[in-house]
Amino acid sequence: MKSKISPKPRGAGMALLVIDVQLGLFKKNTPLYRATEILANINTLIERSRAAGIPVIYVQHCNDSFLTKDTPDWQLHPDLIQPIGDELRISKHHGSSFEGTLLEQELDRRGVGSLTLAGLVTHGCVKAACLDACALGYRVTLAADGHSSFSKDAPRLIEEWNARLEQAGARVIPVANIDFVTEMPRA
């Protein structure tokens, strides 16, 4: 039987994790559900995060098919507020933003213990990052209306995963209620 390892203590800082908002995911045969609204909501989070001095971390998925690194489809969506200055960009090859990347080390280096997550795809990379962040001991907020999918079942999947991720320990709230200035990390 495996022993359960307690997550290590996390810092008091906060960060926004923008997951896989890449052009190729907006070009699938089934359109991304509420694409314009999702982009606007994520941009709102980026603006609020920057205004509060909270780091924004951009994650981009790489694969050997339609998200090949440095191709046009791999690029961040042009309507997404783009990284500036020393904002961190993480390239990943797995569903979770933590698997096989230096994300956890970078968050530790910045003293981050609270993460707000938004991006694509709800039942894939957003789910995986959210579950891993909770398991690693981060205080996680998922933007309830800041993630989506190109599935025909997207409305049901979003509702289902918002509920399941909340049960897993994430705080799931709408973008309108996420305020990085007055937000205090949970103890």
Q: How would you characterize the overall build of this protein?
A:
- This protein is of the alpha/beta class and 187 residues long.
- It has a single domain (13-177), classed as Rossmann fold (3-Layer(aba) Sandwich).
- 28% of the residues lie in helices and 21% in strands.
- It contains four helices and six strands; from the N terminus they run βαββαβαβαβ.
- The chain has helices spanning 35-51, 103-109, 122-135, 154-167, and strands at residues 13-19, 56-61, 89-92, 112-120, 139-148, 171-173.
- A six-stranded parallel β-sheet has the order 3-2-1-4-5-6, sandwiched between helices.
- The longest helix has 17 residues, at 35-51.
- The protein is globular.
- The mean pLDDT is 92.
How does the SSE layout of this entry go?
Elements: E1 13-19, H1 35-51, E2 56-61, E3 89-92, H2 103-109, E4 112-120, H3 122-135, E5 139-148, H4 154-167, E6 171-173
Parallel strand pairs: 1-2, 1-4, 2-3, 4-5, 5-6
